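Progress report, Aim 2. The chain analyzed during this reporting quarter is listed below.
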Amino acid sequence: MRASLSCATIATATQNLQGIRPVVEARFSNASTAPDGERNHIKQPETTAISTDTTNTDSPESPEPPKSEDARNARVELEAKRKQAQLGGGQRRVDAQRERGKLTARDRLELLFDLGTFNEIDTFVTHRASDLGLDSQRFDGDSVVTGYGEVEGRTVCAYAQDFTVLGGSLSEVAGLKIAKIMDHAVRIGAPIVGINDSGGARIQEGVTSLAGYGEIFTRNVMASGVVPQISVIAGPTAGGAVYSPAITDFIFMVDGIGQMYITGPDVVKAVTGEDVSVEELGGAQTHANLSGVAHFISPDEHECFQSVRKLLSYLPSNNAEDAPRVKSPDDPTRKEESLATVVPDNPNQPYSMLDVIGPIVDGGEFYQVQAQYAQNILVGFARMNGETTGIVAQEPAQAAGVLDINASEKAARFIRFCDSFSIPIVTLVDTPGFMPGTAQEHAGIIRRGAKLLYAYVEATVPKVTVVTRKAYGGAYIVMSSKHLRGDINYAWPSAEIAVMGAEGAVAVIGRREISGADDPEARRKEMVADYEERFSNPYVAANRGYLDDVIDPSETRPKIIAALKMLRNKTDTMPAKKHGNIPL
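Predicted structure tokens for the chain:
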């Protein structure tokens, strides 16, 4: 049976405690006033009361335990090592880099990421080689800075080659660092941005350096179509190193400091006798205008990284996510009367398709890709009702919008990117056909032009097409026609959909009749007018169901937006196969 305490018992205990307190206080008082030599000999109480009252603000705080000297030294050492690593190849080389008008690897990463969000990994990795003097040239982090951060609040992985460390040359461990951050990007579904500024493979390491490139190339291929891959060329990129950017989705080059080439000017001269400068061989202007290797060029690095951030704003983080949707103040039902007069009455008079794109997209903002290359076709990103949309359009102001090899490959690559990341495609058509001539035929327009056809058929994303004027022959079929699984196909009343233009058609089918007429010129004009009335209009195609509607040009924006909204949950499939065999 449990005993219970009576009130009397509690009172007695309280009195006993009150009697003890003066004795304890006296002993502590004596201890505090005793000489130093005597304090240790004063007998202390055997028990001490411990307060559990956490609300008592009058109680003195317990003193912090003394900090370990080893812990302090370790933190100081860590901070010193980190500062040294952040200098790359040392302050002298950092200063030399900036004197050349170039930013350092970490400067560039700061421009890419939201302020204070970059987290570096593998800061203290060093190369393992010791041959040819490398044992005395070890730097923490080696020749590349890798890590992750945020761009507009979304996670992005990145690496930046550090030219201050052995010219940014790729070592075995630098290749492994890049491979590691790329693996992270694929696992978490984040874009990867690679900043290139390197003299190439580290010669002293031999085949292990080449193996590093192989690891990177493999991951470029494996990540293709899974996460967006962006390359920035902010210095030399030579030899095998150029193939990594070539596999990525978009390449930015900084004018004046970025170069890409397989072999440098000295080798070119030794082998071919050709005397060429670095800029002529592989500068930004060369690759933006002539080769088409570069998608964007910038006058300086600050603008370059702002452009990279802007591109990322249009893209999803990976192939399982939708692109960011923006709340647009632009009315989705807005009509644009200026479109009614944008196409000239004279079918041979040029106009710019940019005057069509601007009025139909949100805020008139069109982010062109490869703006300086194959200018007879336009590709780029815009938003329609706040949603990212890929735009493919002929440019009648350049070579009448004819399709040639460069235009076909430029558009095909862009279409395949959009399809990889579920970005709808809007196609604006005004083309007289494929470019004729021996130069195009001998360069392979049959094979290379077929890439565009292949890309459109293969794409399963929503596809909306508008024919504004000419759509002749094979080019009509290729430009996302209903026959190539186009979803919604519109035409303006000014559209001409036929095998060829009236003048050319009459020259073929009316040759004998015209030559035998009393007035050949009058008969030719009569036959041209008859052909135009019967064939050069959108209504024959609409009658066959090849067009879903003939629309008023002013209604183009609301019609496209309504179609894209309807197609948002579209599902389409391809036959089961390992992959197709695009005519490369």
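The chain has two domains: 78-314, 337-501+536-566. The longest helix spans residues 7-33. These observations will guide the mutagenesis work planned for the next reporting period.
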